[in-house]
Amino acid sequence: MNNTVYYRGTMGAYSSLAAREALGNKVELTGVDSFKAVVESVTQHKGSLGILPIQNSISGAIRETYDLLRENNLKIVQEVVIPIRHAWMTLEETAMETITDVVSHPEALYQCQEFIQGRALKSTQSDDTATCAKQLSESRQPGTSVIAHEQVAGLFGLKILERDIQTEDLNQTRFIIFGNEQGSTAGTKASVYIEIENQRGGLYQIISQLVSKQVDIISIESRPIRHKSFEIGFFLDLELQKPEDLIHIEKSLDPHLDHYCLLGQYEPFGVRG
User: Model's pTM, two decimal places?
Assistant: First the structure.
């Protein structure tokens, strides 16, 4: 089996930290330049894995990940949730009082809005947090700072000005790890994508079926169906009583659906065998 795990960004990006948390040091982490490139790399290299963020406790769903899951034949094999703790950093030679700008990933900027406004900084959206730090280290741009995980400062020779600058203390991101081979069927969490028959009460019928089977709906996200005006598909994360319950659930849902896709069945984060 290929032990390569693809992630978006450069070493020190939150995706790389999440991969290490979930998979340890026995895998080789390879950074690429976009979410789409992560998926393409996994598709092209049999047995490899990819990791992408899918939900943040502050900013919500990461829609690009949902769309990529729907459009590609990949299976979720694991999830991991890590705390997101942002630090403000700059070049060693830059004095704090001269800083006018801050650069980071859009999500990081959103999660640190109060800090940015309080410092009257001009924010600029760019690549993942670690790549922003690397670019600042190379460009030596005066008056500029970045927001990233504190580990990034040591990787690129930056100094930390302030830690834990996120607006909300409880800031967590859920990441999914996926591959291009059939995953396990032993887990009690299932992620599915469905498209419902275009009829009144369609979603109610689905929810009723799940409730009757004692299935907990952990999350539900809607996305427009391409090539179908104003029609919506749904991503559901389900908590099962037993792994084998999924077969019966799929049979009960089938009469009410136009389309069904199992994105993955796996153990919920925090459950260890």
Answer: 0.92
